[in-house]
Amino acid sequence: MQPPKSANYSMAAVFAVAVLIAITAVCAVFLLFDAVIPNWFVIVARWIPALVAAAVLLAFRKRGLFTWFRLRTSWRTALVGSLVAVCALLIAYAIAAGSVMLGGIGEPQPSGFYLQAILLIVPYALIFSLSTLGEEAAWRGFLHSCLSSLGFWGFASAISCLWVIWHIPLHATMVAQGTLPADAAITSTLTLFPLGLFLSAVSHRYGSAWPAVVAHAVPLTALNLIAFPTGPSPVDYWVIAGASCVTLLVATLVLAPRAAAE
């Protein structure tokens, strides 16, 4: 028997408030002590949502952590879903980067860069999956389980909105500390919304959070695929972000379930 929708919505609400308080408090500590956020923290901080989600499940006396996190699936389904997710994501980024370069922004990276990226994409994705597992178990796992009754576009939009908001304290702190350009921070934060929709689509399609875990771990974006001899300008950031949003939305539409199949 499915748990009451109201209980699931209550857990989602508690999680949303708690996870935003957690990331804001942690960033406030860095600002308070005038300590620059190290690169390793960004990787470790991805486990904050999973820890908060686990605490919420404990508080509501819910069992079946891996079921709520949508991590119970066959290895075949996880593998196929992950391959589809990674390929679709790379194609979306490649099309976005190619269209931008055709428009006269930036230039192709040296051929050796693309060859190295192809050879290292799998091992890098597997390594970074140890980090993204902490995020996706909560966003495309726990929250998906709580909000699935809203239908795909309902829960995917809600999760993506919250995911964007969750990144704001971290990105704002990095801008304040001078480690992230403001235009890069704003555009990368906004691009998280269509990326979140895409991750929800592939996760929903394969009935598991694992494809989202692996796809989220891909260490490339459209921006990385373009070379800027003098560095990207503020306009470049916005154009690339716009192209990425379009291709990610198209990928989401391709992978998202039809209304009758939800």
TrEMBL record:
Keyword Plastid: no
Residue stretches spanning the membrane: 12-33, 39-60, 80-101, 113-134, 146-168, 180-202, 209-231, 237-256
Protein name: CPBP family intramembrane metalloprotease
GO molecular function terms listed in the Swiss-Prot or TrEMBL record: endopeptidase activity; metallopeptidase activity
GO annotation terms (biological process): CAAX-box protein maturation; proteolysis
Keywords of the record: Hydrolase, Membrane, Metalloprotease, Protease, Transmembrane, Transmembrane helix
Domain CAAX prenyl protease 2/Lysostaphin resistance protein A-like, first and last residues per copy: 121-218
Family annotation (InterPro entries): MmRce1-like (IPR042150), Rce1/LyrA-like_dom (IPR003675)
Pfam families linked to this entry: Rce1-like
